[in-house]
Specification:
Blueprint lengths: L1 H17 L13 E3 L6 E2 L2 E2 L5 H14 L5 E3 L24 E2 L2 E4 L5 E3 L4 E9 L6 E9 L5 E7 L5 H4 L5 E2 L4 E4 L12 E7 L12 E2 L4 H7 L19
Parallel strand pairs: 1-4
Antiparallel strand pairs: 2-3, 4-6, 5-14, 6-13, 7-12, 8-9, 8-11, 9-10, 10-13
């Protein structure tokens, strides 16, 4: 897995540079990075066990304090936000807690664009509480013939009608908007963005959160997408 991952990462970063990857979301250039890890606080309040309105208020106020309308949530971050049965694992002693993508918090309705040319692989509405809500997956191919996928979660529902499976999309083309609660899985408005090497035939049920005991495997299948957000240093977007 490690050798395959390193080979893939070198190829996909080169692919992005060669193809001038477009912004997934155009920010104001002043986006901050949130700490949503286990036990974290925003504006002095513990973020675990808050309802969607309370968490959304804290995130909005934190962004306002920093003079921006955009905030990132980190890749590989262990979180105690995932507190319902959807995040149960096969082990009764462990829930899924490790975030496998990068979040970008912003106002609902913000346009989401394809960073690279691709094809719509999946469209679905995972409507369970704290799931992806409306989501889509794009498939991207490189000249070598080996491809990868990008996943977009917590979207506005209109994307499911505006796109079709198999449809080609172009670098920079708007593919969706950021959704709002409760339709977006009942989260504060944000995009969950994830790179995937292999969908493992799981389709729209490919996880966005992993068990800590299995994170090496799952993060190997979903490497850091920090390169898609060059306004931040890559290490700032990865929990360590």
């Amino acid at each position: 897995m490690a050798g395959r991952l390193l080979t893939f990462l070198g190829a996909y970063y080169s692919h992005m540079r060669f193809n001038n990857a477009a912004p997934v979301i155009r920010t104001d250039g002043h986006a901050i990075v949130l700490d949503l890890s286990i036990g974290s606080r925003l504006r002095g309040e513990v973020v675990a066990n808050l309802d969607v309105d309370q968490l959304g208020r804290l995130i909005d106020e934190t962004m306002a304090d920093a003079g921006t309308g955009f905030a990132f949530g980190r890749y590989a971050e262990p979180r105690d936000l995932y507190n319902n049965d959807h995040f149960a694992s096969d082990s009764a002693a462990e829930n899924r807690t490790v975030h496998m993508g990068i979040d970008l918090f912003c106002v609902a309705g913000t346009p989401v664009s394809a960073p690279l040319d691709g094809k719509v692989k999946l469209l679905a509405n995972n409507a369970r509480e704290l799931d992806y809500g409306p989501m889509l997956v794009l498939e991207h191919e490189r000249s070598s013939g080996e491809g990868f996928f990008t996943l977009y979660g917590h979207l506005g529902a209109e994307a499911l009608d505006a796109l079709e499976v198999g449809q080609n999309v172009s670098n920079g083309q708007q593919i969706a908007t950021v959704g709002s609660p409760p339709q977006n899985g009942n989260w504060p408005p944000h995009l969950h963005f994830q790179v995937i090497l292999d969908l493992l035939d799981r389709g729209a049920d490919f996880p966005g959160v992993a068990c800590a005991s299995q994170q090496e495997y799952w993060l190997g299948l979903s490497p850091s997408p920090a390169a898609f957000f060059p306004e931040c240093a890559p290490q700032a977007l990865v929990f360590s």
